[in-house]
Amino acid sequence: MHNVASIEVEADMIRANNKLAEGNRKVLDENNVFSVDLVGAVGSGKTSLLETLIDQMDDSIGVIAGDILSKFDAKRIEDKNVPVKGLNTGKECHLDAHLVEHALDDVPLSDISILFVENVGNLICPADFQLGTHIRVVIISVTEGDDTAEKHPMIFKDADMAIVNKVDLADAVGADADKMVNDVKSINPNIPVVKCSLKTNEGVEEIISLFKKFQDEL
Fold it and tell me: Does residue 161 contact residue 133 with C-beta atoms inside 8 Å?
């Protein structure tokens, strides 16, 4: 009986979260803001990717930066003179639609065209929690091991784009970047997967082109 009760409570939480996510999407649409939920483990390169995109994209960018405790990532974005709202989740290992709902009040939506929501560093917890963004992008790094996608299939099932990052380090850490791409494709055959190195700029132009394609399709 306890297990049944736990499942029912979890289902209710997800339904409530999804309803709030719909409200977030409506706010973003009303302000003509394209939004991206950026998911990845600690050290995968989420913040470094955002710094690169800020430097190379023509769009007006805003960021919601989620973390368990620190505001270090938010400070890095702030140093780029981009509007950013830092969110600390405390014990929670993911953002949810309620947290994002409140954060949207502190983001100048009328001044931006793209909002990146940097989720908490985790590949498991965020999978069930929609935020109201238009797409979800999952970034994994060769330094996490080339079995990373195999070990975390759920996060890729509903993702819209995947990035295999730090491919310049693949040989050094004994990882096969092509295997990682193929593993993602085996989980979600329709997802575009980009091999990326922020050090050499490999893949960045393709990532930006994909964002523009998603925007155009809305």
Answer: no
